[in-house]
Write a structure and sequence with these properties.
With 331 residues, this protein is an alpha/beta fold. The protein is built from 10 helices and 15 strands. The structure holds NADPH dihydro-nicotinamide-adenine-dinucleotide phosphate. NADPH dihydro-nicotinamide-adenine-dinucleotide phosphate is lined by residues 41-43, 127-128, 131, 155-161, 179-181, 199, 203, 220-221, 225, 242-246, 267-270, 312, 315.
Length: 331
């Protein structure tokens, strides 16, 4: 038997609770993992609260991230005792996920736990930190360098935003953090932001082209914020888009693309190939100071997940939430 958050839907009504389930209910997969830690991402909160169409089959165990220890494996890639990490691949959406004491998974979705991090640290980073890394790597690939000017990070207090600030600052970029919570300015400056601006400057309908301000942008907010970020990006700059915290729409014009050569780079972490994942986690290991992760992270028990999901969607969580599922098998 194992404990899990279980989401079900009956007569069009979603129910969610902490349940004790028989292992025979675990889905297909060639690796069974004892889950040590999971996390609560924006997408998990949408799944748990039913406020977004994340879950594709019911019943579903949410949790798009997990770190655990292999219990049994018929794959050549992993043996019992191996420490593994999973981000995405539709886990927690179409396949039972990490907010449970056990998971059965396709071995191709796993990567070995990066040696730079403990299991808890890897989940403090989670999909949010890994997506921030993919976003920063996209800016680098597009030739955005620290000497070109300020880089804007939107949704600054969120998981993606917090990590984007820390990573960019570590690489020497001058980071401007856009937030609706100006009272968290000390936290954002502690992560490495040089300046903090009110997100209201960016969240209302704006002009197709605005003053050229940003050499690059990491956006996790979408909607008018992304449109205004594009309009304010300097000639030849790049804007990465990974999220929709403000909205899924993009009420923009083509002016920044055709008049300023601005690039809009889409970031998806879910289906990213194995080699890219390993490369992003290697960079995270090089750039992040593990002790600094504590400031970004709050740890909760599995029992607190549902309540915390509501807080997260209400914008009351700063940084990242780690869910301690079982006593970790290593420090
Ligand atoms: P969080 O909930 O941790 O952070 C989102 C932040 O966005 C909030 O903290 C808040 O920052 C800001 N925000 C919230 N509501 C609004 C609003 N109405 N208008 C403007 N800003 C708002 O989420 P994550 O950082 O985990 O994820 C951010 C987004 O990125 C989500 O949409 C998520 O689904 C997406 N995502 C996509 C991935 C991909 O693979 N493409 C992977 C990971 C995340 P503040 O208080 O500072 O203003």
């Amino acid at each position: 038997m194992f404990k899990a958050i279980l989401i079900d839907k009956q007569d069009g009504q979603q129910q969610v609770g902490l349940e004790t389930l028989d292992e025979s209910r675990l889905p297909e997969g060639d690796v069974t993992v004892r889950v040590d830690y999971s996390t609560l991402n924006y997408k998990d909160a949408l799944a748990i609260t039913g406020k977004g169409p994340v879950v594709r089959t019911f019943p579903m165990v949410p949790g798009i991230d997990l770190v655990g220890t292999v219990e049994s494996s018929t794959s050549d890639a992993y043996v019992p005792g191996d420490a593994v990490l999973l981000n995405g691949w539709g886990v927690g959406e179409a396949h039972w996920g990490g907010l449970a004491e056990k998971a059965r998974l396709d071995s191709r979705w796993l990567i070995p736990l990066p040696s730079a991090f403990t299991p808890a640290q890897a989940m403090a980073i989670g999909t949010a930190g890994y997506t921030a890394m993919l976003s920063v790597m996209a800016l680098e690939q597009q030739g955005v360098t620290p000497d070109q000017g300020e880089v804007l990070v939107t949704g600054a207090n969120g998981g993606v935003g917090s990590y984007a600030i820390a990573l960019l600052a570590r690489l020497g970029y001058r980071v401007v953090a856009s937030t609706g919570r100006l009272e968290e300015a000390d936290y954002l400056e502690g992560l490495g932001a040089e300046r903090v601006i009110d997100r209201a400057e960016l969240s209302e309908p704006g002009r197709p082209l605005a003053k050229e301000r940003w050499a690059g942008v990491v956006d996790s907010v979408g909607s008018h914020t992304l449109a205004n970020a594009l309009a304010g990006t300097r000639y030849g700059g790049t804007v990465t888009a990974c999220g929709l915290a403000q909205g899924m729409d993009l009420p923009a014009s083509v002016a920044p693309f055709i008049l300023r050569g601005v690039t809009l780079a889409g970031i998806d972490s879910v289906m990213r190939p194995y080699a890219d994942r390993v490369a992003a986690w290697r960079r995270l290991g090089e750039l992040l100071v593990p002790e600094k992760l504590d400031a970004i992270t709050r740890t909760i028990a599995l029992e607190e997940t549902i309540e915390t999901a509501n807080e997260l969607l209400a914008g009351r969580i700063r940084g990242r939430v780690v869910v301690a599922i079982q006593a970790p098998s290593r420090p």
